[in-house]
C-alpha cells in the first residue's frame, strides 16, 4: 500500500517533525504530479513514492526521503525553486537541484569514456546524498523500463550498467549494485541473459535444498564450540555477475562454485576465524578457494571470509563468514554512514570505498601541502573531506562536511556524438582535439562550440559540445604553444614543430 504511514514505518524512530515533513511532501508531490502519467500508465506520483521508499529502505532519514518524494517536481511538474524553498527549506531544495542537474547528464558515447562520465557524476553531485537519491530514482526507472519506448531502453540500460551500477559498487552499496546490474542486463545483453537464466533454472532447487542441510549441520557444530547467535542466509549470485564470471570461465558452469552461497553471520571478528577453523575441521575445504577479505578487504571495502567446502553429499558449497556490521557495510556501503539505523553500530572502518572512489584519491594525503598538485586537483573537495573525516563521525557533522564545494578544477566537454572528455579548467579547443586523437590535433583547422565557429584560443566551458574541423594540409604553429593547457597537447605540438623544422632544413 502506498501511503504516508508505510513510509514513516520504514524510518528509524522518526520525530514528530519528521512525520509531518514526510506527510507534507507526500501531499505536495502527489498534487504537483497529479496530471502526469508514467509510460506504464500509472500516476507519475508512483515513481516519486517508490524513490522515497527506496531511500527509506536504505536507512535514509526524513530529509533525504522527502527530497526523494520531491525529486522530480522542479523538472517535471514546473514547481518553482522559490516555492520549494518556502515550503521545505534550503537543504531540501539543494538536494532536489542536485538531482535535477545530474538528470541532464546523458551517456550516449563510447564505453571508453564511461570513467569520465562517472567522475562527472561524482563531481557534479556536490553531496553524496544527491548520488544516493539518484540511484534510488534509477532503481525505479529500471523496474519500469519495459514500458519506456524501445528506442530509449538500450541507452538507459547501458547508462545504468556502465555508470550507475559501478558507482554503487565503488560506494560499497552491494545491494544497489546488484539490483541495477540485474535490471539492466536483459536490455543490454538479451541473448546472454537468456542463457544465464537457463543455467540458473537448472541449478535452483537442488542447491537451495543442499544449502539448508549444510547450514543446519554447521549451526549445530558452531553451537557446540560456543558460537551462538548466528544468522544464516542463502545468497544467489546476481545474473549479471554470473554472466561476467561465465565469460571468464569459457561458460563452463562446473567451474563456478558460488552461484549459491551460504552466508553465516557471527557476532565478532574472532568468531569468523574460529568458525572457519571449526568448519574446516569437519569438512574438507577446496584448495585455493579460501579468501580472507577481512584481513585484506576488497578495494571497495568489502569484508568477509570465503571458503568452499566439499559436503558429505559430494557437492561443493561456498561459505561466507562475516559479522553483522560487515554485512551491513557490504550491502549499504556509504549509505550506512548516513543511515540512522546503523549509527549506533559505530564506524570503525577507514572509509576505504571513499578513498578508492576516484583514481588518485590515495595520493591525496601525501600531496596535502601542494595545492596545485595535479592529482589532488582532480578530486572534488567534498570527497577529500570524506576521505579525511575522522572515523567516529557524528551524522550531522558528517552531512555538513559533505555539502560544500564543487569540482573546481576540471571541465567536461562533449563531442557532437556525446562522448565526454575531461580537461583542466581553461582548456582550449586545441587541447580537446588532442585529447580525442593526436592526428585530429595535428590537422586541426578550426572548432565549433555549440555549432558556432570559435577562435582556437577560446576557453572552453563545462558542458560545451565541441566539434573539431580538420584539414589534411594544416599543421600546428608555434602560437599554439601559448594557447594549450594540457602537457599532452604541448608535447604533440612541440614534436610536430620540430618535425616541420627538420623537414624545412632538409629541403
Ligand atoms: Mn525520477
Gist?
With 507 residues, the protein is an alpha+beta fold.
Short key terms for the protein model shown above:
Ubiquitin-like (UB roll); Hypothetical protein af1432; alpha+beta; three-stranded antiparallel beta sheet; Beta Polymerase, domain 2; 507 residues; 10 strands; 10% strand; binds manganese (II) ion; 3 domains; globular
Q: By helix and strand content, what is the structural category?
A: alpha+beta
Average of per-residue pLDDT values? 83
Provide the spatial order of strands within the biggest beta sheet: 1-2-5-4-3
Ends apart, CA distance between termini? 83 Å
Number of strands: 10
Q: Fraction of residues in helices?
A: 40-55%
Description:
There is one protein chain. This protein has 507 residues and is an alpha+beta fold. It has three domains: 4-187, Hypothetical protein af1432 (Orthogonal Bundle); 190-330, Beta Polymerase, domain 2, CATH 3.30.460.10; 409-505, Beta-grasp domain (Ubiquitin-like (UB roll)), CATH 3.10.20.30. Helices cover 53% and strands 10% of the residues. The protein has helices at 4-10, 16-32, 45-57, 62-69, 73-77, 81-88, 90-102, 114-125, 128-143, 150-170, 174-188, 190-224, 239-248, 269-282, 324-332, 334-338, 352-355, 374-377, 381-388, 395-403, 429-436, 438-442, 480-483, 487-506; strands at residues 231-236, 260-266, 291-292, 305-310, 316-323, 410-414, 420-424, 444-449, 452-454, 466-470. The strands form three sheets. Strands 1-2-5-4-3 form a five-stranded mixed beta sheet. A three-stranded antiparallel beta sheet has the order 9-8-10. Strands 6-7 form a two-stranded antiparallel ribbon. Strand 4 and strand 5 (316-323) form a beta hairpin. Helix 2 runs parallel beside helix 4 (62-69), helix 8 (114-125) crosses helix 10 and helix 9 (128-143) crosses helix 11. It is globular. Residues 341-379 and 389-408 have low confidence and may be disordered. Manganese (II) ion binds at residues 47, 71-72, 137.
Amino acid at each position: 500500500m502506498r501511503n504516508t504511514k508505510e513510509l514513516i514505518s520504514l524510518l528509524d524512530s522518526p520525530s514528530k517533525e519528521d512525520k509531518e515533513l514526510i506527510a507534507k511532501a507526500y501531499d505536495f508531490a502527489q498534487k504537483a504530479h497529479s496530471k502526469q502519467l508514467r509510460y506504464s500508465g500509472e500516476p507519475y506520483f508512483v515513481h516519486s513514492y517508490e524513490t522515497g521508499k527506496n531511500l527509506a529502505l536504505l536507512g535514509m532519514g526524513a530529509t533525504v526521503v522527502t527530497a526523494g518524494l520531491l525529486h522530480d517536481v522542479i523538472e517535471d511538474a514546473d514547481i518553482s525553486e522559490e516555492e520549494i524553498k518556502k515550503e521545505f527549506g534550503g537543504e531540501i531544495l539543494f538536494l532536489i537541484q542536485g538531482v535535477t542537474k545530474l538528470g541532464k547528464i546523458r551517456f550516449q558515447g563510447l564505453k571508453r569514456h564511461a570513467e569520465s562520465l562517472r567522475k562527472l557524476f561524482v563531481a557534479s553531485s556536490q553531496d553524496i546524498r544527491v548520488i544516493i537519491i539518484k540511484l534510488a530514482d534509477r532503481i525505479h526507472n529500471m523496474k519500469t523500463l519495459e514500458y519506456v519506448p524501445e528506442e530509449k531502453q538500450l541507452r538507459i540500460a547501458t547508462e545504468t550498467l556502465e555508470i550507475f551500477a559501478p558507482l554503487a559498487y565503488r560506494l560499497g552499496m552491494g545491494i544497489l549494485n546488484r539490483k541495477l546490474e540485474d535490471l539492466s542486463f536483459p536490455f543490454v545483453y538479451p541473448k546472454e541473459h537468456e542463457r544465464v537464466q537457463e543455467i540458473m533454472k537448472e541449478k535452483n532447487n537442488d542447491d537451495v535444498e543442499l544449502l539448508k542441510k549444510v547450514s543446519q549441520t554447521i549451526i549445530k557444530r558452531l553451537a557446540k564450540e560456543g558460537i551462538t547467535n548466528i544468522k544464516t542466509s542463502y545468497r544467489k549470485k546476481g545474473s549479471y555477475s554470473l554472466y561476467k564470471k561465465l565469460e571468464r570461465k569459457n561458460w563452463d558452469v562446473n567451474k563456478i562454485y558460488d552461484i549459491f552461497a551460504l552466508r553465516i553471520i557471527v557476532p565478532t571478528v574472532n568468531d569468523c576465524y574460529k568458525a572457519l577453523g571449526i568448519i574446516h575441521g569437519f569438512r574438507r575445504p577446496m584448495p585455493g578457494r579460501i579468501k580472507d577479505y577481512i584481513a585484506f578487504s576488497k578495494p571497495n571495502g568489502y569484508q568477509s571470509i570465503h571458503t568452499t567446502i566439499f559436503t558429505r553429499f559430494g557437492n561443493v558449497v561456498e561459505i561466507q563468514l562475516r559479522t553483522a556490521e560487515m554485512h551491513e557495510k557490504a550491502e549499504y556501503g556509504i549509505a550506512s554512514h548516513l543511515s540512522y539505523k546503523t549509527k549506533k553500530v559505530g564506524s570503525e572502518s577507514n572509509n576505504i570505498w571513499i578513498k578508492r572512489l576516484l583514481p588518485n584519491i590515495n595520493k591525496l594525503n601525501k600531496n596535502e601541502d601542494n595545492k596545485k598538485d595535479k592529482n589532488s586537483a582532480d578530486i572534488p573537495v567534498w570527497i577529500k573531506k570524506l576521505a579525511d573525516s575522522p572515523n567516529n563521525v557524528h551524522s550531522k557533522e558528517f552531512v555538513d562536511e559533505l555539502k560544500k564545494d564543487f569540482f573546481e578544477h576540471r571541465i567536461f566537454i562533449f563531442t557532437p556524438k556525446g562522448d565526454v572528455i575531461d580537461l583542466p579548467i581553461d582548456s582550449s579547443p586545441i587541447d580537446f582535439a588532442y585529447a580525442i586523437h593526436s592526428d585530429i590535433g595535428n590537422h586541426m583547422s578550426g572548432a565549433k562550440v555549440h555549432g558556432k565557429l570559435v577562435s582556437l584560443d577560446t576557453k572552453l566551458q563545462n558542458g560545451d559540445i565541441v566539434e573539431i574541423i580538420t584539414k589534411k594540409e594544416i599543421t600546428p604553429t608555434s602560437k599554439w604553444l601559448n594557447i594549450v593547457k594540457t602537457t599532452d597537447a604541448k608535447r604533440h605540438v612541440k614534436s610536430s614543430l620540430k618535425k616541420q623544422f627538420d623537414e624545412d632544413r632538409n629541403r
